[in-house]
């Protein structure tokens, strides 16, 4: 999607801009803004699932490319930052220091959040480009996020839309969500959530396997044990296929309210000994667990599942069986890195598991293609490169607008 679009601010909006001319080929001063209400710590300095490690990883990549980066709205130390400008802006990224940082580009998470409004105000004051990141979270987020979204749409939505130079959508549903929010199609870019392809790579193994006495091939699920995840379907299909064999295991790693019911289901189906239940793995345990597995399952039955673990599985060269849903379809081409399966259809999942289990040649081919896809499309280096193009394009258009404003008195 193209981002080429001229700015047409109102006279009062244009009066807010007062930035000196700059060279957009130089390193950028980039401010990343999170809404504090979206931040929930889960362990030492980890954002909750809404953003995961997106902002920290992106900031680290920008720093490695020579840009000056500061984070705002997040706990101190969470987002990597440069020391440049600390004398003027202070050592930590408080809200009062955002304008003092004088960014060239403001990246705000959640297109109509209070963070986006703050970013729009600062962008206009200092002549920066505003780039929004839109995730289209399942169910539009938690209750307070839905309330804030409605407030944002009513109070500052038009202001943010007029200011935005680009919207980065993390998947196809996020593109649709941004369009419903009123952003012009030519402003929207789809750039996937990144994966650390150095940490998540083929050939790893896990200490979890001998600890839980798991031997043989593994059909792996990682995620919440809750409604909408399709786990009942996955367990039924496993019971009718490789669950009857001694050389296959279903490993379900995660916590959630459906755990007791799913445990009972596996026992009723007579496969209790073939299913291993693991608690939610630590971040550092995931690469080995995925690398030691044979197939990765994402049996979601609706768009409440973002599928963030899917990219990590692909980076580990792990073939995927995924429900044929828009978000999952973005990364899974049927027959290339695995199989797309009709959501909630037990017969379809029986067929998919049977096909994948009986074809080691196909699994080997899918594994190679999965790793290649992750390296070419999902690595943080690739994601940062695509972001950089969007940022510079948005910045160039701001510079063009400012140059036109400066030239007006000479031509009048």
Lay out the secondary structure:
Elements: H1 11-15, E1 29-33, H2 54-64, E2 68-72, H3 86-89, H4 98-101, E3 105-109, H5 114-126, E4 129-134, H6 143-155, H7 157-163, E5 164-169, H8 172-180, E6 188-190, H9 208-211, E7 217-222, H10 231-240, E8 248-253, H11 259-268, E9 275-278, H12 286-291, E10 295-298, H13 308-315, E11 320-323, H14 326-329, E12 338-341, H15 346-357, H16 360-378, H17 380-411
Parallel strand pairs: 1-2, 1-3, 3-4, 4-5, 5-6, 7-8, 7-10, 8-9, 10-11, 11-12
Helix pairs in contact: 2-17, 5-7, 10-15, 13-16, 16-17
Could you provide a short overview of the structure?
The protein is of the alpha/beta class. The chain is built from 17 helices and 12 strands.
Question: Please, could you describe this protein's structure?
Answer:
The chain is α/β, with parallel strands linked by helices and 412 residues long. The chain has two domains: 11-194 and 379-411, Rossmann fold (3-Layer(aba) Sandwich), CATH 3.40.50.2000; 208-377, Glycogen Phosphorylase B (Rossmann fold, 3-Layer(aba) Sandwich), CATH 3.40.50.2000. The chain is 42% helix and 14% strand. The strands form two sheets. Strands 2-1-3-4-5-6 form a six-stranded parallel beta sheet, with helices on both faces. Helix 8 (172-180) links the parallel strand 5 and strand 6. Helix 13 (308-315) packs across helix 16 (360-378) and helix 16 (360-378) runs parallel beside helix 17. 44% of the residues are buried. Mean pLDDT is 85; it is low at 1-24, 41-47 and 86-93.
